[in-house]
Amino acid sequence: MSDCLFCKIAAGEIPSTCLYDDENVYAFRDINPQAPVHFLVIPKQHIDSVAAVSAENSAAVARCFEVIAKVAEQEGLENGYRVISNCGADGGQTVHHLHFHVLGGKPLGEKIL
Ligand code: 5GP
Ligand code: ZN
To answer: Does the beta carbon of 86 sit less than 6 angstroms from any atom of ligand 1?
Structure first.
């Protein structure tokens, strides 16, 4: 998608702090961190949100989770972390390219589940 912020970040057209990059997945630090470690993992393929995951594109999602585990280890999150994907208006999604927030580096406290 030509007008998508995270497509542009994945393509290197908008700068970001890269933590992992391969042909399918990109991981980078969130610009407004909500924990000592807060990074985002995205498929390079544009998928709008969790609601748009299907049998045709779910391999990209699986690859994102492989990268979540790898980068979490790289970032020293051996005590654990939280993975969040906000979906749609009620979920509070602001960037409409599927992304997984990974938060850690301290006890995260407030759980809603
Ligand atoms: P959402 O609210 O859609 O779940 O998450 C979007 C996330 O993207 C937010 O945590 C926000 O801080 C982050 N974000 C928005 N714009 C940029 C940007 O230009 N660069 C980076 N690195 N993160 C961004
Ligand atoms: Zn996109």
So the answer is: yes
pTM above 0.85, yes or no: yes
Pocket test for ligand 1, best of 19, 30, 39, 99 (most atoms within 8 A of CB): 30
Q: What is the pLDDT along the chain (113 residues), one digit of tens a residue?
A: 779 999 999 999 999 999 999 999 999 999 999 999 999 999 999 999 999 999 999 999 999 999 999 999 999 999 999 999 999 999 999 999 999 999 999 999 888 88
What burial letters (b/e) apply to 74-99, b meaning 16+ CB within 10 Å? ebebeeebeeebbbeeeeebeebbbb
Contact between 36 and 93 (Cβ < 8 Å):
no
3-class secondary structure, 102: strand
